[in-house]
Amino acid sequence: MDALTLIRETFAPLPGRRLIDIGCGPGALAGALAGEGARVTGIDPNPAAITQAAGAVPGAGFAVASGAHLPFAEAAFDGAVFLNTLHHMPEAGAALREAVRVVAPGARIVVVEPLAEGSFFTALRPVEDETAVRRAAQATLDALVAAGELACERDVTFARSETFAGLDPFLARVLATDPARAGAIAERRAAIEAAFLAAASRDDQGRFVLVQPLRACILTGRFA
């Protein structure tokens, strides 16, 4: 199980499918889905990320916007995806409601979120401790399901394993997700290296292995 396979299976067949990638970053997911024929629109509050995504995926549409305020009409899409992004949104509940609003009635919303556990999470903590925001995102999601505002069709946890030749490739990966982490990395490099070495296991080729548990939920909305 991996996130991209889950997303593909959820929205198959992809050709012509209108999908919104909420928190698209530089466009990696949008590119993968557009490459298989989906009509993808990506939104992100970071203008630099949107510029990069538009250059990388010319066949998709992109806009600078927050998840809590989507500049689209009701039922404009056939599905929505939050891939490792909900915990970055201060108004996670509003973002989920907006996703429901802009997808067709009964259309699926896929939320994939990293949990506050695992060796990747442990190595990341000296750079940025996401314990509170990750747990808050899970709590918001669970509360909306418990209240009947979202229906959960599938709830699965799986692990993403990544290998790194050393600390620098790990830091490059961390910076690619959020360039604003550069200052923390410069200030705390020694502590980050210690955490990385303590958290990582080694494979038979001597590479460092970090594992991140992810929770994926396939949802439909029940908002009025």
TrEMBL record:
Any one GO biological process: methylation
An example molecular function term from Gene Ontology annotations: methyltransferase activity
Pfam families named among the record's database cross-references: Methyltransf_11
Keyword annotations of the record: Methyltransferase, Transferase
Methyltransferase type domain segment(s): 20-110
InterPro entries reported for this sequence: Methyltransf_11, Methyltransf_Superfamily, SAM-dependent_MTases_sf
Protein name per Swiss-Prot or TrEMBL: SAM-dependent methyltransferase
